[in-house]
Amino acid sequence: MKETITITDVALRDGLQNQPFNVPTHVKVRMARMLFEAGLQSLEAASFVSPKAVPQMGDAEEVIRALKGCGRVSGLAPNVRGLERALSANIQEVAVVMSATDTMNRKNLNMSLEETLKASEEVLRVARANGVDTRAYVAVAFECPFEGLTPSERVFDLCDALLEAGAQEVVIADTIGAAAPGQVSSLLSGLKGRVPQDMLAVHFHDTRGMGVANAWAALEAGVRRFDSSVGGIGGCPFAPGAAGNLATEDLVLMAEQSGFSTGVDLAKLLGVLDYAEEQLGRTLGGNSSRWLRQQKARLGSDPVRGLTP
Ligand code: COA
Ligand code: ZN
Question: Which residue's CA is the nearest one to ligand 1's atom 47?
Fold first, then answer.
């Protein structure tokens, strides 16, 4: 029996939040449906933040409502106002974003680290009290664009606090894609015993080309829950230097070829990539997408046939 990994595709949130134009709601909904159709089990599809700060996420309620019943759908809610909006859309899961440095919290949410922690804890508590599932990002967990390397102890303390407040999944996020596999191994080994394996996820960006290597380091450390984004679209608009996310196709190919099961159909995922390119009007894709497309042209519906025993 192959071991399974769970992937949350964050393209609709991390990816579409910083496009130079607002992607129409019906396009987001179509893309989400295609991702589920391709076998993704979980999507982060919207952000309940100020539409003045992030106009691209202004249709959060509509997106969440339209996806009701399609699968596990999550939305970002950094404050109670955001959570109330999410609840009004009958959301299934919300995520808070707790950056590990004071400056990053101020740039992202206009709150100090302490204020952000208080707001996050409140969102987690109220969400759980309303029967909503919760994720908690620990952002800039390795390096901050303003404060440099992040002390691991800070990450550990935040994980403890977020779990205590009711986070059901803690997501260690390399928001600007600055980590190397050695740092990933080291941080994750420090988290052993603090965050149960089935409540731990990782979120990588591919800025320095180390996204897949970092995902492998996380797999080796026992992590089985990953964020990634189809085509690698993504990046926080308030974190200078952040490039795209680890591409879902790169993660799926690496994991499947290494003997893990992702449930994702790569041929269908390439179909989502084609659609996203058409809608965003530019070339997207992770490091493997060119090769995967050639394979698909050659082999049809099963581009990775024969790669695994
Ligand atoms: N949803 C919608 N509107 C919100 C909101 C939310 N969750 N939270 C606050 N607002 C509104 C307020 O009602 C207020 O509106 P008004 O100007 O019409 O009166 C305005 O936004 C400012 O509110 P305030 O409480 O003063 O917040 P702020 O200006 O300090 O901004 C955030 C704080 C969190 C709302 C803002 O920084 C934000 O939305 N950041 C988004 C960050 C993000 O998405 N980053 C990328 C993902 S990590
Ligand atoms: Zn991200």
Answer: 236
**pLDDT tens digits, one per residue of 258-296:** 999 999 999 999 999 999 999 999 999 899 999 999 999
**Could you tell me if 104 and 121 are in contact, meaning their C-beta atoms sit under 8 angstroms apart?**
no
Q: Is 49 in the pocket of ligand 1 (CB under 6 A)?
A: yes
pTM of the model: 0.97
Give the nearest ligand 1 atom to 109 CA: 37
Do residues 96 and 120 make contact, with C-beta atoms less than 8 angstroms apart? yes
Residue range of the domain that includes 133: 3-299
Contact (Cβ atoms closer than 8 angstroms) between residue 42 and residue 74 = yes
Q: What CATH code is carried by the domain that includes residue 175?
A: 3.20.20.70
Mean pLDDT over the full length of the chain: 96
The answer to the question of residue 308 being in a domain is no
Shortest-distance atom of ligand 1 to CA 81? 7
Whether 239 lines ligand 1, by a CB cut-off of 6 Å, is no
pLDDT the model gives residue 241 = 83
Q: Can you read off the two tokens belonging to residue 18?
A: 């910083």
The model's pLDDT over 89-102, given as tens digits with 9 standing for 90+, comes to 999 999 999 999 99
303 lines ligand 1 (CB under 6 A): no
Asked, for residue 309, whether it belongs to a domain, the answer is no
